[in-house]
């Protein structure tokens, strides 16, 4: 395994981050294909043995049970200060808004719940999961800064945002003396490369770490288009993300298979080796032991400049999909509220 600094933080992270969305109680959340605690724990243990020290979960994954499984496995198999734990919080709910709960109060409540789920005193990276158009960014940044000041999180990150949102948020944080976002978790892989429009340049300019999710397009970049799996059959959310561009994407997937054969490696290794030339640490989901073993091997695979161009050549820009397709105001005339009114933004 290789390690690198996470953006402007002091965190030293493995080049592969283990995504924990596939762990958790399958009866209790969005996904029916998640692994029970025993199998999740085995994969986490194997990841640690292979040198993975960076783990990504969220309070939203299977109603907090992903956090619970991860927390217990880390207690069993690792030392807390030798791993980097990232979790994410959700936007304010309509009920909270109606009850007058502020963004700051919401965040305090969310971090306390996540720490309880993880059974930890702090997380290393606390991530704003998706842009909350109903909560002023000032309140979010103030709330996150309180979390860092109280020692409940060491650093903060952001996910599913436009470059302009991240640039503006970090500029406000800097002016106010608040903690700034050190990483961004966007949707980025060989068949979905919209982060290259603006985000990649912002990150390079400001040393913000890119830790992309769905690094293997939820498995599509790991196998030939005619192959399937339990998750592939049941993951309707991933189908919704990728089905519209299937035909076009399959041409790129074929090139991944071609290069895999040439190198005598798996398609996973080719897909991740490409992404590793662009980002700090891709987040890879694993639902089988061999998934994490295969992903880790990619760290040592070098692609030539010609191979990288060959993989990139056929990409045609895609419409935003998944969470990013929802990153907009509820009606076209609505503008984002940046502050509660007392602060100049
Ligand atoms: N911030 C966000 O909004 C957001 C959204 C989505 C995900 N995430 C994070 O990103 C992580 C990864 O997301 P993801 O699961 O959608 O994407 P992914 O890493 O692109 O896909 C994981 C899937 O790829 C296949 N795979 C992985 N390694 C393999 C290997 N070595 N050989 C063959 N197949 C392999 C498996 O598919 P099969 O199971 O089908 O075999 C596995 O379930 C999540 O766990 C979560 O932490 C964040």
Blueprint (SSEs and pairs):
Layout: E1 3-5, E2 12-14, E3 17-19, H1 37-49, E4 54-56, H2 65-77, E5 84-89, H3 94-98, H4 103-118, E6 123-128, H5 137-149, E7 153-159, H6 163-176, E8 181-185, H7 199-206, E9 209-210, H8 230-234, H9 236-242, H10 246-263, H11 267-276, E10 283-285, H12 289-297, H13 305-312
Parallel strand pairs: 3-4, 3-10, 4-5, 5-6, 6-7, 7-8, 8-9
Antiparallel strand pairs: 1-2
Helix pairs in contact: 1-2, 1-12, 2-4, 4-5, 10-11, 10-13
The structure holds NADP nicotinamide-adenine-dinucleotide phosphate.
Describe the protein's architecture and organization.
By secondary structure, the protein is an alpha/beta fold. Helix 10 (246-263) packs across helix 11 (267-276) and helix 10 (246-263) runs antiparallel to helix 13. Helix 2 (65-77) links the parallel strand 4 and strand 5 (84-89). The longest helix has 18 residues, at 246-263. An 8-stranded parallel beta sheet has the order 9-8-7-6-5-4-3-10, with helices on one face. Strands 1-2 form a two-stranded antiparallel sheet. The chain has helices spanning 37-49, 65-77, 94-98, 103-118, 137-149, 163-176, 199-206, 230-234, 236-242, 246-263, 267-276, 289-297, 305-312; strands at 3-5, 12-14, 17-19, 54-56, 84-89, 123-128, 153-159, 181-185, 209-210, 283-285. It has 13 helices and 10 strands. The N and C termini lie far apart (43 Å). It has one domain (3-326): TIM Barrel (Alpha-Beta Barrel). Bound molecules: NADP nicotinamide-adenine-dinucleotide phosphate. NADP nicotinamide-adenine-dinucleotide phosphate binds at residues 19-22, 56, 129, 159-160, 185, 213-219, 222, 229, 231-232, 266, 268, 283-287, 291, 294-295, 323.
């Amino acid at each position: 395994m290789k390690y690198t600094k996470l953006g402007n933080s002091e965190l030293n992270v493995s080049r592969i981050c283990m995504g924990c969305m596939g762990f958790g109680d399958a009866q209790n959340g969005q996904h029916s294909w998640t692994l029970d605690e025993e199998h999740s724990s085995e994969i986490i243990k194997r990841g640690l043995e292979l040198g993975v020290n960076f783990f990504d979960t969220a309070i939203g994954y299977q109603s907090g049970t992903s956090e619970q499984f991860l927390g217990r496995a880390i207690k069993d198999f690792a030392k807390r200060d030798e791993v980097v734990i990232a979790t994410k919080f959700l936007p304010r709910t309509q009920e909270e808004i109606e009850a007058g709960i502020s963004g700051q109060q919401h965040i305090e409540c969310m971090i306390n719940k996540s720490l309880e789920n993880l059974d930890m005193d702090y997380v290393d990276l606390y991530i704003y999961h998706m842009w909350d158009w109903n909560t002023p960014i000032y309140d979010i940044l103030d709330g996150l800064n309180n979390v860092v000041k109280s020692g409940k999180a060491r650093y903060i990150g952001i996910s599913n945002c436009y470059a302009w949102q991240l640039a503006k948020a970090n500029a406000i944080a800097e002016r106010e003396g608040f903690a700034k976002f050190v990483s961004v978790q966007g949707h980025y892989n060989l068949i979905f490369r919209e982060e290259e429009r603006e985000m990649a340049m912002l990150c390079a300019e400001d040393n913000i770490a890119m830790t992309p999710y769905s690094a293997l397009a939820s498995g599509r970049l790991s196998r030939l288009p005619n192959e399937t799996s339990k998750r592939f059959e049941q993951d309707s959310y991933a189908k919704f993300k990728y089905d519209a561009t299937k035909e076009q994407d399959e041409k790129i997937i074929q090139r991944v298979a071609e290069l895999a054969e040439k190198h005598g490696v798996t398609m996973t290794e080719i897909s991740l080796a490409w992404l590793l030339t662009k980002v700090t640490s891709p987040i890879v989901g694993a639902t089988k032991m061999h998934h994490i073993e295969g992903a880790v091997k990619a760290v040592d695979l070098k692609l030539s400049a010609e191979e990288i161009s060959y993989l990139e050549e056929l990409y045609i820009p895609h419409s935003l999909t998944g969470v990013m397709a929802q990153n907009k105001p509820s009606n076209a005339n609505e503008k984002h509220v940046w502050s509660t009114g007392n602060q100049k933004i």
